Amino acid sequence: MKLFILPMLLLFQSVTWANESDLDEWGRALGNYNLCSNIATKIDDQTMFKFYQKMLNDTQLPLLALDSERVGIVYATWSESEAILSAIDEESLKQICLSRIDDLSRRMINNIATQEK
Questions:
Q1: 102: phi > 0 → left, psi -120 to 50 → alpha, else beta; which?
Q2: In this predicted structure, what is the pLDDT of residue 9?
Q3: Beta-carbon neighbour count of residue 37 at 10 Å?
Q4: DSSP H helical segments within 87-102, as ranges?
Q5: How far apart are CA 49 and CA 35, in angstroms?
Q6: 64: confidence class by pLDDT, cuts 50, 70, 90
Q7: Euclidean distance between CA atoms 113 and 51, whole angstroms
Q8: Radius of gyration of the chain (CA)
Q9: Strand, coil or helix: what is 107?
Q10: Tens digit of pLDDT for each residue in 3-62?
């Protein structure tokens, strides 16, 4: 349990020191993960969906340590990022999302999902 708590405390502390550039990058990542997760749902790729949902959830968790002004910056950038990415043709965006999950990652995600059942 201690091994889990210490890294989380360090993560939350580093998040509170984030500058606006870091917050913008964070929002862009969230927008990207969310769109790729939505695409995975559309093409019924459960492995891709699990991958991007985990990335989305893990990236959102430290938002709990931020004040409302910083959270607002992250969410504004997230929305802006999704709007920009949505302008890209969906097939190209799908290929970008798919290219991030190599065969080894797919096998690992599927093995974890199998073990959880």
A1: beta
A2: 47
A3: 20
A4: 90-99
A5: 10
A6: confident
A7: 11
A8: 16
A9: helix
A10: 555 555 445 545 556 788 889 999 999 999 999 999 999 999 999 999 999 999 999 988
Q: Give, in degrees to the nearest 5, the angle at Cα 87 between 86 and 91.
A: 75
Give exposure, 85-106, as e/b (b: 16+ Cβ within 10 Å): beeeeeeebbeebeeebeeeee
Residue type, 6: L
Q: Which domain holds residue 80?
A: 2-116
The crossing angle, in degrees rounded to 10, of helices 20-42 and 46-60 is 160
Give the DSSP H or E segment for 103.
Answer: helix 103-116
Count of domains observed in the chain = 1
